[in-house]
Amino acid sequence: MSDKLDSKIPAGPLEQKWTKHKMDSKLINPANKRKYSVIVVGSGLAGGAAAASLSEMGYKVKCFCYQDSPRRAHSIAAQGGINAAKNYQNDGDSVYRLFYDTVKGGDFRAREANVYRLAEVANNIIDQCTAQGVPFAREYGGLLDNRSFGGAQVSRTFYARGQTGQQLLIGCYQALEKEIAKGGVEMFPRTEMMDVVLVDGHAKGIVTRDMVTGEVKSYAADAVILATGGYGNVFFLSTNAMGCNVTAAQRAYKRGAFFANPCYTQIHPTCIPVSGDYQSKLTLMSESLRNDGRIWVPKSQDDAAAIRNGKKKPEDIAEDDRDYYLERKYPSFGNLAPRDVSSRAAKEACDDGRGVAPTGLGVYLDFRDAIDRLGENVIRARYGNLFQMYEKITGDNPYKTPMQIYPAVHYTMGGLWVDYNLQTTIPGLHCLGEANFSDHGANRLGASALMQGLADGYFVIPSTIAVYLAGEKPGSITTENPEFAQIEAEVTERLNKLLNINGNRTVDSFHRELGLLMWDNCGMARTKESLELALQRIPEIRKEFWENVRIPGHGDGLNTELEKAARLADFLEFAETMCHDALEREESCGGHFRLEYQFTADSPEVQAGSTQPGEAMRRDEEFAHVAAWEYQGTENKPIRHVEQLEFESIQLAIRSYA
Ligand SMILES: Cc1cc2nc3c(=O)[nH]c(=O)nc-3n(C[C@H](O)[C@H](O)[C@H](O)COP(=O)(O)OP(=O)(O)OC[C@H]3O[C@@H](n4cnc5c(N)ncnc54)[C@H](O)[C@@H]3O)c2cc1C
């Protein structure tokens, strides 16, 4: 265990840790709270919830986002739902079961104490959001409705049609707007954080660029919170919004915050397949569709080839000639097997020559049986907007013919390392939501990201920020401290350097090249060789980028190419850390699948019937830990630190969904 990684997990029984921690932590009295200021970067569900809550408690908050309104944070894209263990269905759910499913779903690579707290506060989130007026779907009797998501055998997902993120964000945004109107939150839209400022080793502010005027400016506070979302766009093609980036986290990493488990990427099984080289975005088809849709490919390669050549339609394939491979391989969970498992199964079917999209990379998600059983109206009420979106993009009507889907990059479980208080290895710098590594281990279960972001923002940080602030003298640091001017100068110099390259290639051409390299070599499957290849190529691409990128225009106003270039420069550094992490983790777990580490027909575990050939082979003896990377200079390999994971409540086992 690295002595630099103190997780600060409270002692005592799992169920009492959070309550006890709150009891044992220092409080700041209401009159004193007003003296403290906090910077929150990000106004998605995690940042928006944190900013609104901290302001309501009395802290002075400055909140930053790069969109023109907090209402447009990427959280708005979330479709399917948010988990909580209310057990309204009386189907055996409990806080413990949600905790257990989450730890197991993450392939036993998350901290028990954090996950238990998450499961515990999840019910409060539903109450809070309902009180805000979030229009969760309801049953006839008036109770909130639930549906099922992958990796769980209970129905615990609360939803608002296929727009849950949007509705939750509207609730959060209203809370934030109320605080803005009261003067507790000062909001800075279209303001991009370019770096974090440390004074005497503590995070005391940020340097930003005004995206409209180009002004580079500093802001100081007593503590800084990053809630800046995930880094899936390192792959260029992903389901994330185009603006999602790693800049804030990478900048913090370069100033001393450790980056944990960067190799854990979630590849979501149900996205619209890639259809050509021109694409810059992939579209998610919500996991909720797997409640009623059945996934299949033809049993024979000939039938699949006939479909690809347009000689057969899915309707021409007889029932007996279809392979409902998830139902076959994982009978207890069927189409609701977790995402990593389902994605790999789709890849396996396509690698076997049974893919149905023109590219060979696609499987069917079929609603025929559900429509026969429930009627088209019920399906329309449940998923109408998703069906409409699918038809608009592909031209196919999913009420009549199955959807074609394929896995795509969707979420990143890695992020800045944080302790139980959500503080990074830099004192005063906290990190929330998708940007931290905390609760999902090697694989996130569906509907758990919204839960974590809101848990962090509404319930955890409002308590734990005081642990840091109580030891600080409020207002002691201002932008007059010389560290601010120095980092402002560094930011300006870097932007000018980018603008002055004047090369021949567009930012996107570099991003596309990096993304493809990452997908091919550090994507759904990785090997030692592929990762070594990527580690050799990334510095070469980075070098060419800094010599040959072309950014038209200037820095004194709106310049979207400059914005993209600055973000890509960070991706080009970060990608290397991802590959180092994937290379050193010599096991397969969750979203990290190393081809060398999979069960085969000869494995004793397969012979004993505990798993199947092709499933991920964890190596708990060596790797039941968090890997957190410490920056050592861009051209040097970072140092890998280890936080050993202690499992007191859950026994590690081969993850089985059969
Ligand atoms: C298509 C899609 C559907 C999804 N559906 C679900 C679902 O049904 N259920 C579920 O649980 N999860 C879902 N997820 C995942 C979930 O939506 C995200 O993980 C979650 O919303 C992230 O919230 P966040 O607050 O951490 O970050 P975001 O919502 O990404 O917010 C990031 C914020 O940081 C700001 N920011 C970033 N960098 C900077 C910078 N340098 N300077 C200033 N501001 C910055 C942005 O402006 C933004 O305000 C889905 C994801 C996708 C892509």
TrEMBL record:
GO terms for molecular function: electron transfer activity; flavin adenine dinucleotide binding; succinate dehydrogenase (quinone) activity. The keyword Membrane applies. It catalyses: a quinone + succinate = fumarate + a quinol. It is an enzyme of class 1 (oxidoreductase). Residues 38-450 form the FAD-dependent oxidoreductase 2 FAD-binding domain. It is found in: Cell membrane. Its cofactor is FAD. Residues 511-657 form the Fumarate reductase/succinate dehydrogenase flavoprotein-like C-terminal domain. GO terms for cellular component: plasma membrane. It is a peripheral membrane protein. Keywords: Cell membrane, Electron transport, FAD, Flavoprotein, Membrane, Oxidoreductase, Transport. InterPro entries: FAD-dep_OxRdtase_2_FAD-bd, FAD/NAD-bd_sf, Fum_R/Succ_DH_flav-like_C_sf, Fum_Rdtase/Succ_DH_flav-like_C, SdhA/FrdA/AprA, Succ_DH/Fum_Rdt_flav_su, Succ_DH/fumarate_Rdtase_cat_sf. GO terms for biological process: anaerobic respiration. Its EC number is 1.3.5.1. The active site is at R339. SUPFAM superfamilies: FAD/NAD(P)-binding domain (SSF51905), Succinate dehydrogenase/fumarate reductase flavoprotein C-terminal domain (SSF46977), Succinate dehydrogenase/fumarate reductase flavoprotein, catalytic domain (SSF56425). Gene3D superfamilies: FAD/NAD(P)-binding domain (3.50.50.60), Fumarate reductase/succinate dehydrogenase flavoprotein-like, C-terminal domain (1.20.58.100), Succinate dehydrogenase/fumarate reductase flavoprotein, catalytic domain (3.90.700.10). It comes from the Bacteria. PANTHER family: SUCCINATE DEHYDROGENASE 2 FLAVOPROTEIN SUBUNIT (PTHR11632), SUCCINATE DEHYDROGENASE FLAVOPROTEIN SUBUNIT (PTHR11632:SF53). Belongs to the FAD-dependent oxidoreductase 2 family. FRD/SDH subfamily. This is succinate dehydrogenase. It comes from Persicirhabdus sediminis.
